[in-house]
Amino acid sequence: MIIVFKQNATVEEKTKLKNQLESKGFQIHASDGVNASLFGVVGDTSALDINLLRVVEGVEKVMRVQEPFKRANRMFHPEDSIIDVAGRKFGGKKLQVIAGPCSVETQEQVTEIAKDVKAAGATLMRGGAFKPRTSPYSFQGLKEKGLDFLKNARAATGLPIVTEIMSPYMVERFVEDVDLIQVGARNMQNFDLLKELGKTNKPILLKRGLAATIEEWLMAAEYIMSEGNENVILCERGIRTFETYTRNTLDVSAIPAVKRLSHLPVVVDPSHAAGMWWMVEPLAKAAVAVGADGLLIEVHNDPEAAWCDGAQSLKPDRFAKLMGDLRGIANIVGREL
Amino acid sequence: MIIVFKQNATVEEKTKLKNQLESKGFQIHASDGVNASLFGVVGDTSALDINLLRVVEGVEKVMRVQEPFKRANRMFHPEDSIIDVAGRKFGGKKLQVIAGPCSVETQEQVTEIAKDVKAAGATLMRGGAFKPRTSPYSFQGLKEKGLDFLKNARAATGLPIVTEIMSPYMVERFVEDVDLIQVGARNMQNFDLLKELGKTNKPILLKRGLAATIEEWLMAAEYIMSEGNENVILCERGIRTFETYTRNTLDVSAIPAVKRLSHLPVVVDPSHAAGMWWMVEPLAKAAVAVGADGLLIEVHNDPEAAWCDGAQSLKPDRFAKLMGDLRGIANIVGREL
Amino acid sequence: MIIVFKQNATVEEKTKLKNQLESKGFQIHASDGVNASLFGVVGDTSALDINLLRVVEGVEKVMRVQEPFKRANRMFHPEDSIIDVAGRKFGGKKLQVIAGPCSVETQEQVTEIAKDVKAAGATLMRGGAFKPRTSPYSFQGLKEKGLDFLKNARAATGLPIVTEIMSPYMVERFVEDVDLIQVGARNMQNFDLLKELGKTNKPILLKRGLAATIEEWLMAAEYIMSEGNENVILCERGIRTFETYTRNTLDVSAIPAVKRLSHLPVVVDPSHAAGMWWMVEPLAKAAVAVGADGLLIEVHNDPEAAWCDGAQSLKPDRFAKLMGDLRGIANIVGREL
Amino acid sequence: MIIVFKQNATVEEKTKLKNQLESKGFQIHASDGVNASLFGVVGDTSALDINLLRVVEGVEKVMRVQEPFKRANRMFHPEDSIIDVAGRKFGGKKLQVIAGPCSVETQEQVTEIAKDVKAAGATLMRGGAFKPRTSPYSFQGLKEKGLDFLKNARAATGLPIVTEIMSPYMVERFVEDVDLIQVGARNMQNFDLLKELGKTNKPILLKRGLAATIEEWLMAAEYIMSEGNENVILCERGIRTFETYTRNTLDVSAIPAVKRLSHLPVVVDPSHAAGMWWMVEPLAKAAVAVGADGLLIEVHNDPEAAWCDGAQSLKPDRFAKLMGDLRGIANIVGREL
Question: Are residue C115 and residue C255 in the same domain, yes or no?
Answer without folding.
Answer: yes
